[in-house]
């Protein structure tokens, strides 16, 4: 998922799937989508030991145009049906809809009117009282993944890898200004930065719903200095990462907050559009690294009557299998997913800390 996508505030986060409750072949009830509620399904035994689910209703959150989502994910119906059949589950129908909001997905999972949700980490954390995480989406990794800012500088430039990862980092990057270089020199000498160091320079941040450009850097400031991003006396909000890097190059700002591979994205503009003589890797340095920002989840309702351990295992394997095929990757690429890996609730502890911090900031406002 693109790094500038919000993971923590529900209205700005990446899309997820909603699976409505399926109905028992004996109940005659219809499944519930994100915006509706009817009788939930149960699993019944079918022929040759298989188990039957009349309907599995899947709804995406509306982070893109609904018709675009519906069209792009149409092949998922047949893929899931086939994979689950091979794992012992006869699904009569897979229905795909688009939910009305991120909150509708979380609320449907909590209420049990949705069985499955492919939802952002932030949405999962907000509603984890009512849902369990099964899988985390994967993305292409980077050659560096360290908590140490000095490691990022010693091993620059950052390169893409074919390794699939379930998270990414946000970085605080110092530029070529005198103050920026002074911070970089201190970090590269193995010295700890002080609040006086970071509060005395000009910062560029993104909007308050940006994980890499605001939320996680604020979490980093809180962990390092018991401060948050609103307490930086010289911070300006940029409307894009491009404008932030332009300001960094010109010396208007000394430090910016961004996603880990942003310098790879702006390396060419650094020496062309921004007219810098040196490469971006020579002119900039990392002064801070945030905890991992975990990718989207596939989560399931704790209240759904079909979500026993066996079906959770089958559903997890079905999505993993789909993500391992070229046809499956083409479908899930609508949200930049490359595949899926098993997840656990503790993977999202940093999300919980960030959510708590944002809630406290909002309460104090």
TrEMBL record:
- Name used for this protein in its record: PhnD/SsuA/transferrin family substrate-binding protein
Q: Which PROSITE patterns match?
A: PROKAR_LIPOPROTEIN
Question: Which UniProt keywords are present, listed alphabetically?
Answer: Signal
Question: What is the phylogenetic placement of the source species in the record?
Answer: Bacteria, Bacillati, Bacillota, Clostridia, Eubacteriales
- Per the UniProt record, the source organism is Ruthenibacterium lactatiformans
Q: Where is the signal peptide?
A: 1-32
Signal in keyword set: yes
What Pfam families does the record tag this protein with?
Answer: Phosphonate-bd
């Amino acid at each position: 998922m693109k790094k500038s996508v919000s993971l923590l505030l529900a209205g700005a986060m990446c899309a997820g799937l909603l699976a409505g409750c399926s109905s028992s072949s004996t109940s005659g009830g219809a499944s519930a989508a994100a915006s509706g509620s009817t009788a939930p399904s149960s699993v019944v035994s079918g022929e040759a030991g298989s188990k039957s689910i009349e309907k599995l209703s899947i709804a995406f959150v509306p982070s893109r145009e609904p018709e675009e989502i519906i069209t792009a994910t149409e092949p998922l119906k047949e893929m899931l049906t086939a994979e689950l059949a091979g794992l012992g589950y006869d699904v009569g129908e897979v229905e795909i809809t688009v939910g009305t909001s991120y909150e509708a997905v979380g609320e449907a999972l909590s209420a049990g009117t949705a069985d499955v949700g492919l939802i952002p980490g932030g949405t999962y954390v907000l509603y984890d009282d009512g849902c369990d995480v099964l899988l985390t989406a994967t993305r292409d990794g980077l050659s560096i993944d360290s908590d140490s800012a000095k490691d990022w500088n010693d091993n620059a430039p950052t390169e893409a890898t074919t390794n699939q990862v379930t998270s990414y980092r946000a970085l605080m990057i110092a530029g070529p200004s005198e103050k920026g270089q002074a911070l970089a020199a201190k970090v590269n000498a193995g010295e700890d930065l002080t609040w006086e160091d970071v509060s005395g320079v000009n910062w560029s941040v993104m909007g308050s719903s940006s994980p890499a450009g605001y939320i996680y850097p604020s979490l980093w400031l809180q962990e390092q200095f018991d401060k948050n991003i609103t307490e930086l006396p010289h911070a300006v909000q940029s409307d894009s990462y491009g404008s932030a890097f332009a300001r960094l190059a010109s010396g208007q700002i000394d430090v910016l907050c961004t996603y880990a591979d942003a310098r790879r994205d702006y390396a060419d503009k650094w020496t062309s559009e921004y007219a810098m003589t040196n490469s971006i890797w020579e002119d900039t340095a990392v002064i801070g690294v945030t905890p991992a920002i975990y990718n989207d989840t596939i989560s399931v309702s704790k209240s759904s009557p079909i979500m026993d351990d066996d079906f959770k295992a089958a559903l997890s394997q079905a999505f993993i299998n789909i993500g391992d095929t070229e046809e499956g990757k083409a479908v899930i690429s609508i949200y930049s997913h490359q595949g899926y890996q098993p997840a656990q609730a503790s993977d999202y502890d940093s999300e919980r800390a960030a959510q708590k911090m944002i809630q406290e900031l909002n309460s104090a406002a």
